[in-house]
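Researcher: Going back to the complex we discussed earlier. I've cleaned up the inputs and rechecked each line, so this should be the final set. Can you rerun the prediction on the complete assembly and write out the structure?
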Amino acid sequence: MGIYRDVGVVLRTYKLGESDRIIVLCTQGRGKVRAVAKGVRKTKSRFGGRLEPGSHVLVQMYEGRELDIVSQAELVETLPELRTGLDRLGRCAAILEAVDQVSQEGEANAVLYDMTVGALRAVAHWDTPLVTSAFFFKLLAVEGVGVSVGACVECAAETDLVALDLASGGVRCRSHREGVAVSPEALLILQLVLGGRLAQALALPIGAATFEVDHLAHLALERHIERRLRSIHILDGS
Amino acid sequence: MADYPAAIQELIDAFGRLPGIGPKSAQRITFHLLKADASESARLVRALSEATARVSFCSVCFNLAEGEQCMVCSDPQRDPHVLCVVEEPRDVVAVERTREFRGRYHVLGGAIDHLQGVGPEQLRVRELLARVQGEGITEVILCTNPNIEGEATALYLSRVLDVPGVTVSRIASGLPVGGDLEYADELTLGRALEGRRTVVR
Ligand SMILES: [Zn+2]
Ligand SMILES: [Zn+2]
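Model: Rerun complete. Updated structure for the full complex:
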């Protein structure tokens, strides 16, 4: 059985037995990897704290028959800001959950790895829900199901765009409106985010349009993965 | 693969559903009990049925209790103004072992876990708020696990426990990150309790 090293982001963990965990990683070289980390729930564990959801790590693994086994883990970078608020933890979780849903085992996906790392850094840097929305829309684009927000999907008009129609993958003008209504402010944010001007979008003050875009991003992603994102709904009832 | 008689298979399955016991261990335990003296399984059966019949959740703090209230809640020596909030009954045991804490507990029954979809609704948060508002509590110590779920829970609770006259503190970060509280040694956990810090909201 071989040993390999790879960098990756811990997407989620499951308790296994008394003190072990199964770790799911989005790696740079091997796509999604599931591995066993032994003894990590004991507080004296050498690398327990490095294998929590959101950790960016360099791991050394033994290839196992079913699951690989983590033999070493080092942090590649630490983003302590991620733990400074419930909202940030929630954004971080939403990103990890989305990546877990779209990533495949046994299929290298360096782009997804890079995007995930970038998104977590953005969550640490900017305290706005727009970070997650932007990530979701970019993720959908990379998945080949991106939405086009520049012109009406029906008549190519570039003005008076009032709706986002996820079924046809883009915005629609007033005469061809279908799908969800979009305010001009939210449309502007969408155009900035998808037009590669993310920094400009992130610099906008947080307002109603931010939450509108957030909602649209959730709808779009949940439509693609065909299930609800758990992490964004846990505080719904309270 | 040859099948076991139904009664044996049932026993193996029952053990296999317990936490920390895989199929191999479930078989091993089953055959150990079948081979051992009959009094050994009789003792196990008795202990199990007594425990499940007698032990339930404390009506005040949701710790395990033999009777209406747990040993801590029914002890008049304990400070009724200070609450230590933990995730599970086994964490009460861990904190008790430190002998540093003289107040009472509130057991949430888990932690906020975004990725598993566990929110405050599934925990005993409403009961905690009712206690804090109704029992003259002056200090709440958030003693959730030093991992991401415990951190999220503490952040959420510090947000909702914004009650006048109540200090909310979080155990010190001296605890190794990522571990379970129940594995912390008494000394480390005791120091973490002593070094708790008021939560900045
Ligand atoms: Zn049109
Ligand atoms: Zn009690």
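Model: Worth noting: The radius of gyration of chain B is 20 Å.
Researcher: Good, that matches what I expected from the previous run.
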